[in-house]
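ok trying again, last paste got cut off:
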Amino acid sequence: KKVVCYRPLAGRLSQPSDDSRWPRSGSLVATAELSRQTIRRQSLVLAATIFSVAAVALSLNYRSATRLLRNEVREQLSDLVSIAASDMDPTLVASITRPEQTGTPIYRRASEPLLKLRRLVPEIYYAYVLGASPEGLRFMIDSTYYIRNPGDPLGPTRVGELYDNPSADALQAARTGLITVSARPYTDSFGSFMTGFAPIRDSKGKVVGFVGIDFSLAQLRQKQAPL
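nice, full thing came through this time. structure:
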């Protein structure tokens, strides 16, 4: 029989001498590191975007809730001053004109609607009556004479004491004779407050004074704290 012998072709089955077709190990490492950096960068961008959106949403929600709370306080002040003004005795209020009347029995009787309201609504920080004069607004009745706020360093005002720096809302109430409520907190020599004012009218419709009721800014912040 004819015997046929095969000789292996050198290099035919071996790895090509030109290794440019195959990625080197260094290139693989560099490519993997680049991919990790890209993923890390994209993750940071995504996280920053999510945080920014969440922060804006929380900020808008807080502002909306704060605005709603402030409107509720304004409505409550409007109701309280309306009730207090309607309960005041205009004849008694008009008769209180002299400093020596502070703390007298007639002063106490005239103050009773304010004291009753303060006992029912502990959130009220100040409740008082102002009267108009050529020099400006003057205090006529101050419930602080009977109900003192804890930690309040200021004593009660006396009848006829001038209100040195009245708020714009107090001046507007005196000018218009209408119920007026603070749109935002204000600060005077007594502190920072949201305030409501309502006129006290006699049987002829004449304004004899204005009830003022204050909620302190500290109380408002306590209401806002849960937000």
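cool. The radius of gyration is 39 Å. The longest strand covers residues 191-201.
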